[in-house]
Amino acid sequence: xxxxxxxxxxxxxxxxxxxxxxxxxxxxxxxxxxxxxxxxxxxxxxxxxxxxxxxxxxxxxx
Length: 62
Hints:
The protein is mainly alpha-helical. The chain has helices at 20-27, 37-58.
């Protein structure tokens, strides 16, 4: 085996984003990570709601 071999992840075909979604897709590399705007938005909302729920449950006035 040669030590000169480099592994490159395949890049899937680009999605058809326009406007500000295209800028976000390029910045966050949606194509490279095989995700899309809807999935990432739902993940962010889910995380936010979960953290809010945890804060409400663990709040104890001093």
